[in-house]
Amino acid sequence: MTSEEQLSREEALAQRNREIRWVLWLVLILNLLVAVAKFGYGTLTGSVSMRADGVASLFDTVSNLVGILGMALAARPADANHPYGHAKFETYASAVIGLMLLLAAYNVGKDAFVALTTDARPVRVDAGSYVVMLATLAINIAVSCYERRRGAELHSEVLSADALHTMSDALVSVSVVVALVLVQLGFTKADALCSCVVAVAILHSAWEVLVQVNRTLSDEARIDPAEVEAEVVQVAGVRACHRVRTRGTEAEVYLDLHVLVDPAMPIAEAHAVGERVERLLAERYPQVVEVMVHLEPDTEIERAEA
């Protein structure tokens, strides 16, 4: 990769980080408004499920702050101690969001258990309850869809994790609306039972986030090796390709592979073949930030090690 291409790549990553942080700040403000509305009205009317939903939304705002901090750290350039850069701080931020979801599930489940096993004060359900819940539900769905779309466009783990967090909040809101209807119909424990459903939904979201985190931290392959091999063998001068390995985040993938060339090929010509392979893979996979090509003579020994 030339110095101009490297500079262009760094500028693109910096722009990506700025866009992710902007999305997180916007979502933070909306989540804070939603949390205050649900928790406040739930406290006023005595609704455990509505108050629990407010707590879940409050955790959304904290997760936004974690994401913003994680992206600020991930944006730092590579240095002597971090030669591969700081991209995994975005993954660490996603892991914290997953842990916060677990904590939110615990808090909601605890409140639901207390409500089921004690004689809590009656829940008041009025028109205001439905207005608050339906309005905040619409905001949550819109925010989650927006975050999921931007997360896919920017290959952002933290936005994808936060979108799941926000969608879990939307599912919680749906269960709260159901609880309010059942309470009005005379099922007094419906409010607490729906809070239990809320806790399970949050746990499921936590699991999805942590699975994604594990993919990055365990260096799971990001690109199908067979697909890479099929691309590389089309390059002039390449006889075979094997030992394809990829790792990294969705947005920053590191790729290394072994390329077999004619044993009699001059070093300069073999080097040119390697550069053609690098350019091809950089164009074919925009998320790849570095390609390491190991040139090997096409011998029976090398073929046997494929």
Rounded average pLDDT: 81
Give the second-level CATH assignment, the architecture of the largest domain.
Up-down Bundle
CATH class value of the largest domain? Mainly Alpha
* CATH domain fold name of the largest domain: Alpha-lytic protease prodomain-like
CATH superfamily of the largest domain: Cation efflux protein transmembrane domain
Task: Briefly note the structural class of the backbone.
Answer: mainly alpha
Order of neighbouring strands in the sheet with most strands: 1-2-3
Helix content: over 70%
Shape estimate: elongated
Write a brief structural summary.
With 306 residues, the protein is mainly α. The chain has helices spanning 3-45, 48-74, 88-117, 127-154, 157-184, 190-217, 225-232, 267-284, 300-304, and strands at residues 240-248, 253-261, 288-297.
Question: Would you write up a description of this structure?
Answer:
By secondary structure, the chain is mainly alpha-helical. The chain folds into two domains: 3-217, Up-down Bundle (Alpha-lytic protease prodomain-like), CATH 1.20.1510; 225-304, Cation efflux protein, cytoplasmic domain (Alpha-Beta Plaits, 2-Layer Sandwich), CATH 3.30.70.1350. 70% of the residues lie in helices and 9% in strands. The chain has nine helices and three strands, in the order H-H-H-H-H-H-H-E-E-H-E-H. The protein has helices at residues 3-45, 48-74, 88-117, 127-154, 157-184, 190-217, 225-232, 267-284, 300-304, and strands at 240-248, 253-261, 288-297. It has a three-stranded mixed β-sheet, with helices on one face. Strand 2 (253-261), helix 8 and strand 3 form a beta-alpha-beta unit. Helix 1 (3-45) runs antiparallel to helix 4 (127-154) and helix 2 (48-74) packs antiparallel against helix 3 (88-117). The longest helix has 43 residues, at 3-45. It is elongated, with a radius of gyration of 25 Å. The model has no long low-confidence stretch (mean pLDDT 81).
